[in-house]
C-alpha cells in the first residue's frame, strides 16, 4: 500500500495542552501488519527523549492507541498516553526540562513499517501550556522574583503560589497549567534565578512572607487566603510557611519532608537547622547510583526535634501526597508524621494520599518519568525510584485530587 494513503491522526487536534490526552491513530496500512510508533521530544536544554511501541494493525489497516495494545517496546498493553509518559532520555539520568512556557513542547510522532523500519508518516503534537488570553508577567517586586500567570476573563481569581524543587531557577509548567483552571498562580523562585543568591547559606522565610503578601494584595486575586503547591524540598518550605505565616488557606505538599533539610531556615529570630544526614545509611544501586532514601533520621527521633516544622501552629487545610517508592527520602513517613502531629493537636484539616510504585517527581499528567538524575544537594546522580506506568497513573490521579482540593478550599472562577 502506498505511503501517500497512510494517515497519522492526532485527536482532537495537533494542538493540545500538555496535561491533556492525545489520541494517536494510524489509518491506511496493510491489515494485520506490524507498525512501530515512535515519539521524540527535545527539551529546553537540548536533551533528546524517545519512546517507541510495536502494534499490529487491525483488519481495517488501523492502529488506535486508545484501544489497541502495544506488543513490545517502551511499554506494553493499552496505554493511550504511553508514547508521552514513557519518553526516556538518550543520555541517562536526565530530567525533562521546560522553563519558559511561551512556546509549546513539540512531540514528533512517527508511524514506521515494523518489518522494514521505513518511516511511513509523521506528525507533530504541539503541547501548549497557556490558554489564549493568559497573561504571563515576570515579577520583580521588592525582593520577589518569579512569574505570575493570570487567566483571561473577569477576576478576581483565587491565588496559588507554586514552589518547585531544590536546584535553583524557576519552573513554569505546573503553574501555567494550574492557571488554566481559573487561578492566579505565582511561580516563585527562591535562589539561583536572576539576582537572587546563587548559593545561599541560609533561606529567609521573610522572603516567602513578602511573596504571600504580594500575591494576596494583587488586585486580580480574591482572598482572604491563598493556596500553596509544592514538591520535594519546597514541600518543607510550604509546611514552614503554613506554620509561621498568616494568609494561607490550602497547602499541597507533594513528596515533601516534615523536617528542614540542606539549608538552615530563618524566620525573624528563629533558626531551624537542617536535619543531620547519616552518610552511613547511603547505599548504592546495582548500577552504581547513589540511594539516599534512608539518609535522614526518623522525624520522631530526639535528634530530629529541632529541625521539625511546627505544623501544629498551621491554620490551613493540608493535602499530603506521598510516593511509596520515593528514594529521595521517605515521603510516606513524613506525610504520616505530619498527619499524626496535626491529629494529636486536635486538627483534622488534612488529607493524606499515597501512591504505590510511584517515584519522587510527581509532576503534571503525562510528564516523562524520571527514575534518576542529578541531585543539587548531593552533587551527583541519585535514584528517585518508581515504576513508569504506576508513576504515570499517580500523576494523573494526583492532578485531579489537586484540582478538587483547591476547588473545595479556595473556590474557583469559571473561565
Automatic annotation (TrEMBL):
InterPro entries: AB_hydrolase_fold, Acyl-CoA_thioEstase_long-chain, BAAT_C, Thio_Ohase/aa_AcTrfase, Thio_Ohase/BAAT_N. The active site is at residues 232, 326, 360. It comes from the Eukaryota. Residues 21-141 form the Acyl-CoA thioester hydrolase/bile acid-CoA amino acid N-acetyltransferase domain. Gene3D superfamilies: Acyl-CoA thioester hydrolase/BAAT N-terminal domain, alpha/beta hydrolase. Belongs to the C/M/P thioester hydrolase family. This is Acyl-CoA thioesterase 6. The gene is ACOT6.
